[in-house]
Amino acid sequence: MARPGAGGALLRRLRVLAQLPPAARGAPPLGLRGPATAAAASASYGTSITSAKIKVNGVPLHYKQTGQGDHVVLLLPGMLGSSQSDFGPQLKSMNKQLFTIVAWDPRGYGHSIPPARDFPPDFFERDARDAVDLMQALKFKNFSMLGWSDGGITALIAAAKYPTLIHKLVVWGANAIVTQEDLKLYNAIRDVSKWSEKIRKQMEEMYGHEYFAKTCEAWVDGISQFADKPDGNICQHLLPLIKCPTFIIHGGKDPLVPQFHAEYLHKHIKESQLFLMPEGKHNLHLRFAEEFNRLVEDFLR
C-alpha cells in the first residue's frame, strides 16, 4: 500500500526526471540506445562472470570472462596464481560497458591442471604463446594485457613478440632480470610453511599442500636459472621491441620486487609511464583495488 501523499511526490519526481538529460536519468547515452543495446545491458553475460575451458597448444586452459565492452583485456596472474585467486576485484568491478575482461589460468595453475606445472628454460615464452593463442582461439584479434608479477613478465614478452596483437600493456611487480638480491628474496619464500597463514590456506585449498609446496620449490629453481645468464636476463633484450603504450605500476613497499626493476622497465620501454604507489605492496591491485582499477581504466581508455 502506498504511503499517504506518495502519488503527488511521485508525479513531482517524474516531472523533475523528465527535465534531466538522459545520462542523469539513468538512461543510456544516445549512441547506446536501441533494442539490441537494451538487450545486451540486461543480458546475464554482461555483468556475470563465466568460466570455461578451451584447448590451446594441446592443453585445456581455464579462463573467466565478463563484460561486454569493445576493448578486450587479458589478466595474467602471478606465480601459483589463477583467475580466481588473483583478480577478484578486477573481474567484479572494472567497467563492463567499456571492457570485455578475460582472466586465465596458465598451464599447471588454477583449473588448468593437468598438466602439472613445470619450469623449463623457456617457461615464460611458453606462457606468452599460450596466452596469445588463447585469445586468438576466443576470436579476440587485438587486446590489452594486465600482468602481475610472473604474469607481468609473460605480458612483456607477449607485447614484444606479438606487437600487432597487443593494444596496451599494464604491468606491476614484474622484472626483466634476476639479480643476486632477487635470489635471496626468492629463496626466502621457498619453504611455504613460512608464508602467511591466510595465503597459505588459500593456496592449499586450491592445490592441496603437496602440489603447492612442490610447485613453489620448483618455481624458485625455475626463476633462479635466469641468474646464470648474462646480466641475469629474462627478457631485457625484448624490452626495446615493445611498441604499445605501456603503464608500469610499482608498490613502494613491495617485499618481493625491488623498485629498481620498475625503474629499469621504465627506462628501457620507450615512452612508457611509471606510477609509484607509496603504500603498495606486491599485491597492490588487491589491497588498493579501487585506486588500481581507476588508474588502469584511465590508461586503457
Structure description:
With 301 residues, this protein is an alpha/beta fold. Helix content is 43%, strand content 18%. The chain has helices at 6-19, 22-25, 35-42, 44-47, 83-86, 88-93, 123-137, 150-161, 180-187, 197-207, 209-224, 259-268, 284-287, 289-300, and strands spanning 50-56, 59-67, 71-76, 99-105, 143-148, 166-172, 246-251, 273-277. It has an eight-stranded mixed beta sheet, sandwiched between helices. The chain is globular. It starts with 5 loop residues before the first helix and ends with a helix.
Top keywords for this entry?
14 helices, alpha/beta, 301 residues
How much β-strand is present in the residues? 15-25%
Q: Please give the number of β-strands.
A: 8
Strand order of the largest sheet: 1-2-4-3-5-6-7-8
**SSE string, helices as H and strands as E:** HHHHEEEHHEHEHEHHHEHEHH
Counted by DSSP, the helix tally is 14
| Largest sheet properties | 8 strands, mixed
Helix content: 40-55%
Q: Assign an overall shape.
A: globular
What is the distance, rounded to the nearest whole angstrom, between the alpha carbons of the first and last residues? 47 Å
Radius of gyration: 22 Å
Give the rounded overall mean pLDDT.
88
Low-confidence stretches: 1-45
Category by helix and strand content: alpha/beta
